[in-house]
Amino acid sequence: MRAAVSALVRKDLRAELRNLEAVPAMTLFVVSTFVLFHFGTNRDDLAGDLASGVLWVTLLLAAVLGMNRLFVTEREQGGFDAFLLAPVDRTAMFVAKALVLFGFLVVVEVLGVLAYSVLLLEPGLGQALPELPLVLLLADLGLAVVGTLVGALAVQTRARDLIVPLLALPLSVPLLIAAAEATAPLLQAGGAEAVPGRWLTILALYDVVFGLLAYAVFDFLLED
Fold first, then answer.
1. Fewer CB in 10 Å around end: N or C, the chain?
2. Beta bridge partners of 121
3. How far from 54 is each of 60, 67, 121, CA to CA, in Å?
């Protein structure tokens, strides 16, 4: 299974480097949204709950763009049929796609959070370290798992661009709440406060529960 996952990840990364479709689009969306917030609200000093909410809603919507593109190549070029004929564990595709989407999210957030700090964040990023990367990684893992599951389901339909947000956004509400609540203390104007452990626990539980659920049902999605 490890060899199959590695091969699929390399294939997707090569395709992204060649076509530059998902990551540039996600990054442009994130930066453009922060620019709109900057000029639309005429503010450059967001902090606390508002700063956290703007950050996570923007990152979630950008993740939806990546989910929409995750299985397009397999659908349009017969990748699903070739994979089903190969003598490998079918859940290898789930693991590979989740890793690819996770990587895309990390790259987008490195660039997007820096732009956010310049355009909108009054306290600066320094006070949020090193807790903020932990929150981002836990949330990215959950988004990657849910996004892979939703993307695999939606790509089988004609209304893929509609189905992905309709499914992914409601499923991501618990993750969004936990991530925003965990991030808000780190972005307080008067200095960062400790992250409540319960929100990190909720993020970790979300990752485990949806990871196991997606892993269990992914095989049946390929059959359909």
1. C
2. 46
3. 10, 20, 10
